[in-house]
Structures are given as C-alpha cells and as structure tokens.
Amino acid sequence: MEVLYRRKSASVQEIRGELPNPPSYSAVRTTVNILERKGFLRHVLRGKKYIYSPAAARKKTIRTAVQHLVSTYFDNSLEKAMTAMLALSGKDLSKEDIERLVDLVRKEKKEGRE
Q1: Is the pTM of this model over 0.90?
Q2: Sign of CA dihedral 52, 40, 21, 7
Q3: Which of 41, 42, 38, 15 is nearest to 26 (CA)?
Q4: Cα–Cα distances in angstroms (integers) from residue 34 to residues 31, 38, 72, 86, in the given order
C-alpha cells in the first residue's frame, strides 16, 4: 500500500521492485489481489498489465488496519495496544512527543470519552 500511495499507481512488478528483499512475483500478486478483493485497491488494464491504485484514502486505510490490529492482537483494547506500543518504543519518544500524547489523552477526556 505504501508503494501505491507514494506512486499513485503501479504494476505488480513495479510494486515488487520497490520492496526491500522483495517476495516472489506471485506472492506480491496474491497480496494485491487480496487487497483488491477487500476494497483497498482497484485496477485498470493497460496493454497486458494490470495497473493498481489505492481505492481508499490513506487515512481510511490506516484506520481500518489499526482497528484490525487492535481487535486481532489486543482483544479490542486500545489501552493494551497503546501499552504495547509504548513498551516497544517508549524510550524513543522525546519529551515533546510525550507531552503531545498526554495532551491528546486530556483532550479526549475533556470531550467526554473517558
């Protein structure tokens, strides 16, 4: 998805060419087909190639992916997910990053999302 958001559109071979340690052509094609079936991508036929492009805005795609991650690995608990992320990379956060996160939590609390 990142390749397609950056390039706007690409063939399977072009996508594969931009991946570090790329998987096989068929693995990329299978992934692209799954993403298209789920509504994240669409394609047009140009010559003999399918050219893929994002079907949803990046923000919506990220939201869907995060919701899936939280429900699959964290029992639908945002608290568990955030705790895991902070444990993983908390030491990499600057003082300013932490202050922004605290401000976001305060804002949510103030708006009645306790």
Answers
A1: no
A2: positive
A3: 15
A4: 5, 6, 18, 31
